[in-house]
Amino acid sequence: MPVIPRIALIFAALLALALPASAKPPIEAFGDAPDIGAMQLSPDGTKVAYLQHNKDLLQLVLYDLQTNKSEALATVGAFKARGITFPTNDYVILHASMTTRNMEYLTNKFEHTSAFAVNLKTHKTAQLLTRADWLHPAQSGLGRILGMDPSGKYALMPAFVLDKQITADPLYNLLKVNLDTGAGARIIGGAGASTTDDWIVNGKGEIVARTDWNDKTNDYSIRVYSGDNSREIFKRSGPQQHLEVIGLSQDEKSLVVTDRQNSEFFSLYQMSLDNGALSAPLLKRNDADIERPIIDKGRVVVGVEYAGMFPSYSFFDRQLDAEVKAIQSKLPQSSVYLTSWDETWSKLLFLASGGGISDRYLLYDRKAHTLNLVAVARSQIKAADVGEVVTIEYKAQDGMKIPALVTWPAGVSEANRKNLPMIVMPHGGPEAYDSVHFDWLAQFFANEGYVVFQPNFRGSGGFGESFAAAGHGEWGRKMQSDITDGARALAKMGWADPNRMCIVGWSYGGYAALAGGALTPDQYKCVVAIAGVSNLKEMLGYEKRTRGAESTTFDYWRTFIGDPDRDGDRIDAVSPVRLAANFKVPVLLIHGADDLTVPSHQSDQMEDALKAAGKTVTYVKIPGDDHSLLLPGNRTTVLEAARDFIARNIGKAN
């Protein structure tokens, strides 16, 4: 039996943060990037690297856990920081992107991604894969690191390379990239851009397998390698394949894959490198999907994180499994995420989020059985500023059970949680889900005195295949009525004032907000749509043009929304841009001008339609930023605009 350790938690540091706040945090404390974020532990467990935000300055910082000294490694300029990798003790890699265009190849903008390696001994920085004329000039996904060469000096990275001419189908090759110079050399070639999608590399830098997906034929295949020779061991045909190779078994003699196998939820399996045969499930739950695999050095799968209102984990190592569960039990109201670990698994870095606290990083020493506070992500937000998040479940009109979150206003006692002004905030995706964590947007509204309702309507991910599939063809219909039913349920229970509701959403949530104003015009007193979809036919056309008529992506959206050729009238019937005359309440539109996920033309059209119908509309278009609005100051702009607009329409709560 595994031994659950007695964990000495440094409660004093945590409780000190729970003292009453002297004043409400400034709006920038919610809107700006966290003071500290994306923290990663070094392989030897002695240092952490993280992104530090100070007003308009974003830096990559190294902190020594033994000496308590920090140093800035690099300043993030025009790029948008996307994450950090700590592949060896000598290098830290920053992943970033920039919206751009290459006029020689593409007139449309695309998100150019890249990676920057910082040598911790020389303090020199190299941008990886920038000086090769054989690289394709317009590709996203550049900067992905699949493994390391045993020397620790080279990263193994995939990239699209040119064969003979720029118009030819580029090949997805695996490259060996010098972390000091950024120069890359081709190791092995893959198939064309429409086929090869991943390489599996072991801890010795050896190629084990390659996966291919052909959008045109809907064929998924797996090839295994012995030196330069390869052979196919698995092939499956059909749209929207579920099976995916995620890594290697602990003995490196098998692949590890996720698959549904006619089940509601994904499970973990081993696949034979000899013949592609699948084992019985290795890790499986009958009530939760696999959110992500936990992958160690050399792409070895050591466990999984499961989806749910709170994250949970399963590991092959029973002792590790018990210790992680024990850590989570110490903060039962918070989501506790495992974010990184050292190479011997003796130190684990966790992010604790929600449950009455803002984000904080905790370091667990398995030998000493201690859990210590490393950093608070948002230093200006104290525990008293954080609204309590609770999970609820309600029934939709047809009886389907809908899980949801309610965030209570910060500082409002339980006795006074009655008849409150409410923000209804459906999530994006739509096949995503809201879970307990420090949601900066929900917490801002809670800090302003509003109760925030976040429904996981049918069509959301994380709750099984049937729940997600129940949303197919239901944009503006049952997906929307699930949201409406929940809002009315909270009013009926006396929690929310039915005459002081505003619906606010981002991406699909922006569509749901507009649909709320168009399809239930008497339900809400105002609508805020951030990066929202307004014209479903045009959105389908955009995906068809950019991804291809035979692509899996277009097939997915056609399944979820409808076929524009067959279901045109039905799609128009739930497209807010076609229903502008229905609106009775003011609308605030917010959109990044460089949004490549939902083009800003969607909000442009909505503004024109509302104005033509004589409706009240305000449009805040944010230049130079994308769908996520990550550039400094832009999320604060969103909060300022939304705060003032909502206060004018349902009253200022605080």
Beta-strand share of residues: 35-45%
Count every helix, treating DSSP H or I runs of 4 or more residues as helices.
12
Helix content: 10-25%
Strand arrangement in the largest pleated sheet? 28-29-31-30-32-33-34-35
Q: Roughly what is the average pLDDT, rounded to an integer?
A: 89
> What is the C-alpha radius of gyration, as a whole number of Å?
25 Å
Structural class: alpha+beta
Which residues form runs of ≥5 with pLDDT under 50? 1-21
Number of strands: 35
Coarse morphology = globular
Largest sheet: number of strands, sense, barrel closure: 8 strands, mixed
Describe this entry's structure for a reader.
- There is one protein chain.
- The chain is α+β, with helices and mostly antiparallel strands and 654 residues long.
- Helix content is 18%, strand content 35%.
- The strands form eight sheets. An eight-stranded mixed sheet has the order 28-29-31-30-32-33-34-35, with helices on both faces.
- β19 (254-259) and β20 form a beta hairpin.
- The model is unreliable at 1-21 (pLDDT under 50).
